[in-house]
Amino acid sequence: MPAPELFVVSMFHFNLQYCAGGLEGLWPDWDAADNDSIEDQTIIESYVPLLALMEQHPDWTITIEMQAYMLEVIARRHPDVLDRTRALADGGQIELVSFHYSDQLWTAFPLHDQEVSLRITAETFQEHDVPRSGVVFTQEGQLGEGALRVMPSFGYDVAVLPRNLAKYWWGDAGITDTLYRYDDVFVVTTQGGASPDGSYEVVWSFADDGELLATNDLNCYLGPAFVHDPAAVAEYEASLQAYADAGAQILGIGAFVAEVADRGASPLPPMLDGTWQPDDTGNLSLWMGWAGLFGSTESDNGVRTANVRARHALVAAEVAAPGHPLIELGWRAALLGQVSDASGWNPYGTEVVYGFDWSARAEALAHDAVADVCRAAEAASVTVDVASERVTFDAPAAVAGAEVSAPIEALAPARAATLTWRADPVASDVTHLEVAFDGGADRLELVLPWDGVDVQTTPALVEDEVVTVSMADVAVDGFGLALPLGLLHLTDDLWVVKDTSSMHLAASLSAADGEVLFEDGTASSDPAAWHLVVVQGSATRALEVARSLNSEPVVTLPCPPVAGQGCGGCDGAAGPAGWLLPAASWALLHARRRRRVAPLEVG
Fold first, then answer.
1. Could you tell me the residue ranges of all domains in the chain?
2. pLDDT at position 431, please?
3. Which residue in 561, 208, 556, 596 sits closest to 361, CA to CA?
4. Tag placement on the chain: N or C end, fewer CB within 10 Å?
5. Weakest-pLDDT range from 104-108, 144-148, 292-296, 309-313
């Protein structure tokens, strides 16, 4: 039997928002701690050395993933680096992967947001004449069934599934193949190893934060120490050379899949939305409720609900003022605000501010976009029903329903809270739950019953059906899901829908305990209010309610916009000028937990 072919692939995941907003206050004696300086440092110290490496090895290819915003910054401030990037990509020496404009926590938001992000991404690569791969890898290794469904519509056909996420859902022995298939999409895990037919072996030379290799595992939080280490690059170069000397093909992921696709691919087992280190993060929980090392400075629910209110304002503006140029700028701001680092892993103060600041700018731009419509109507407010595209002015305030008995048992076991159930004024199958938490030091928690049989929800980027995954096919219990439409089946014909504009925390599902837990360990000691609804009926009806609440809502915007909330210096190019954020007044050490995937031994 002939020796198996050997393929060496890589994934250098770059995140120009790694230290979003800068580190001013963390390094008081360092004069390059602002947002733009740290972005430039990342490009120069960690990205450019990889380009230099590939320029010396025309027979090798590495895969580099970056958000389109990084390409935008490279083009704006480093045109020589753009030229080198384009030349290497055109020559097939770097495979550029990009599936979002900003390094968003995209699993937490509706499909429309990602559609806008993907459109801007495609336009950015086209504008700068840089080829983009059909491979998908995203910030925090996020992946789910919805992404696999929408990929072909946007020109993508290969997804990279982090091995830890695969093992999380399927168990330690669950990865049985080197290549899987979901309809027209191939899925390759970062596990590597020998193919089932024995015809090839794949080795991952690198699968981690791309910033780390050229700096010997240092990241931008270390400020002046985050510099290029030539010895680290030379060590990686030597390892690739050894593989090449052994006859390996050093390929991009897309080329590797093209080489082996006709040798067979297993059907992809069931999986839910997740991230690349789910054991450490409770899957999505660390970004949506769990506190990191500096929980007292975090505000997970505050950031994520601000993101939602900003996108709600923008989808309303799209209906009320279609084509207004400020809406495009607003979306760029909103997507920057949705960056994952604003609420995890252990966000430094400027990262939290970054999420709030960009969301506020996005919402203000939406208000500005409808100002002319408002003035023409001489109205105090405009109300937009996004689903029906109906626009009204000075709509009367909504009337609260009467108090009713609870359709399910709900508990607030930590901080004291008052739970009030109200009938919906229109829909008899919908009951509203208002949770009013007292002030205090305890975390915010809400527990609802769950039958633990199936997970019935809408995965991220799916809005046309409820998807069911049996718990018999899930190897883990007690995992957090983002619920971008807020929808989850509880028991019998009862569904919960969180109002993501007031509470957008992960739902932690435990079949063993028979419960769903919403928790916020990052909340301040101030009183807080959450709003959820319970729907009694079919999956179709529950989905209708969820979409109307969280994807295509009824939104009221003030007319005219509040003074001082204008565009504030839009330059009409890449976005508002002077995109620097306020610095935090405190200095905290920032630590990330990332693990490099070690190369597999050959043979």
1. 285-389, 417-555
2. 98
3. 561
4. N
5. 292-296
The answer to whether 134 and 98 have CB atoms below 8 angstroms apart is: no
The answer to whether the beta carbons of residues 524 and 544 sit under 8 Å apart is: no
For the chain, how big is the Rg over CA atoms in Å?
Answer: 24
Q: How far is C-alpha 317 from the geometric centre of its chain's CA atoms?
A: 23
Percent of the chain scoring above 70 in pLDDT: 93
Residue 541's alpha-carbon distances to 429, 495, 536, 546, in angstroms, are 9, 10, 8, 9
Do residues 576 and 569 make contact, with C-beta atoms less than 8 angstroms apart? yes
Residue 1 has pLDDT above 90, yes or no: no
In 3-state terms, what secondary structure has residue 422?
strand
pLDDT at 582 (0 to 100): 28
**d(C-alpha 99, C-alpha 475), whole Å:** 28
| Cα angle: 165, vertex 311, 120; to 5 degrees | 70
Q: Supply 545's token pair.
A: 């309610």
Task: Answer yes or no: is pLDDT of 474 > 60.
Answer: yes
The span from the CA of 137 to the CA of 205, in Å, is 16
Give the C-alpha separation, 505 to 520, whole Å: 7
pTM of this prediction exceeds 0.90: yes
Cα–Cα distance, 54 to 58 (Å, whole number): 7
371-379 long-range contacts, CB within 8 A, separation 24+: 371/559, 371/560, 371/561, 372/321, 373/320, 373/321, 373/559, 374/557, 374/559, 374/560, 375/559, 375/560, 377/559, 379/559
Mean pLDDT over the full length of the chain: 92
The Cα-based distances of 489 to 97, 108, 421, 447, 496 in angstroms read 35, 18, 19, 14, 6
Cα→Cα distances 262→6, 148, 251, 256, 259, Å: 16, 20, 17, 11, 8
